[in-house]
Write a structure and sequence with these properties.
By secondary structure, this protein is α/β, with parallel strands linked by helices. The protein folds into two domains: 119 residues, Glutathione S-transferase Yfyf (Class Pi), Chain A, domain 2, CATH 1.20.1050.140; 120 residues, Rossmann fold (3-Layer(aba) Sandwich). The chain contains eleven helices and eight strands. The longest helix has 17 residues. The protein starts with a strand and ends with a helix.
């Protein structure tokens, strides 16, 4: 199976290992991630202003490229996924935005939200199947208590992203079970870690991250996994005193499948 792939800026620069783990794991599961040519930064944050069109154009180009290839578009970063999915929804439901974007881009064929955008976790659940992954695991995380950290962007807004229940999700816990670990449910798993205010208010970011880590530790987690590079960075900057290491989920997947370098 071949799927179009949007890696995003962070996974092509500061977090190349996470991208490599994702690609190698996908290949081990029978899926080839075909990177979209000449993709551009999605902006990292969805622009909520109704008249803000320019910052959505790079996402529309990527979405249109996947449409031209006749493939679903897979993202590995929750921020990229959030932006692409919301822009795709705009192009499908808002005639004014779609009209302006199409007139500006002058694509060979107008784009109106036809591409199916999925997160890598959805690919694992819906394209591969967690039962199949469990069968292919070579190095299970037996005995490891792993907390899933969803953060702000992976599930919200729920009516647009439609990945899981934003208040009581299970997709990452099911992933943890598939690689042989024991999921730890803790109240702060889908609360903000403060990543977006790290530069302007480091104390607040530390406080938010500390609450997440403390809560996970109190509930018995040996480690956390996340699907957001910014959350990964922010939480790992604030692990002092909590002894809860934080990993990107593709790193654990690659290790479980036996393809980690």
């Amino acid at each position: 199976m071949i799927l179009s792939y949007y890696p995003g800026c962070t996974l092509k620069t500061k977090a190349k290992d996470l991208d490599r783990y994702g690609r190698k794991s996908a290949e081990a599961l029978g899926i080839t991630l075909e990177e979209i040519p000449n993709w551009q930064c999605c902006g990292g944050v969805y622009p909520i202003a109704k008249d803000e069109i320019a910052t959505k154009l790079s996402s529309v180009r990527a979405l249109a490229a996947a449409k031209a290839a006749g493939q679903d578009l897979v993202t590995l970063c929750s921020a990229c996924h959030n932006v692409l999915k919301q822009v795709n929804n705009d192009m499908a439901t808002d005639e004014e935005i779609a009209g302006k974007a199409n007139r500006y881009l002058e694509l060979s064929e107008e784009y109106h939200g036809e591409t199916n955008v999925i997160h890598y976790l959805e690919m694992l659940r819906d394209k591969v199947g967690f039962d199949k992954i469990k069968e292919l695991v070579k190095n299970p995380f037996t005995g490891k208590k792993i907390g899933a950290y969803y953060g702000c962007l992976l599930l919200r807004p729920g009516k647009v992203l439609k990945m899981d229940n934003p208040e009581n999700p299970k997709i990452m816990e099911d992933f943890i079970r598939a690689i042989g670990g024991t999921p730890v449910i803790y109240p702060m798993r889908n609360e903000c870690c403060g990543g977006y205010v790290t530069l302007e208010d480091k104390a607040l970011a530390n406080k938010r991250s500390g609450k997440v880590l403390e809560n996970a530790k109190d509930m018995g987690a040996d480690m956390l996994i996340t699907a957001c590079p910014l959350c990964l960075y922010n939480l790992n900057q604030n692990t002092d005193g909590y002894d809860v290491p934080v990993y990107y989920f593709t790193e654990l997947l690659a290790e479980a499948l036996g393809v980690k370098d």
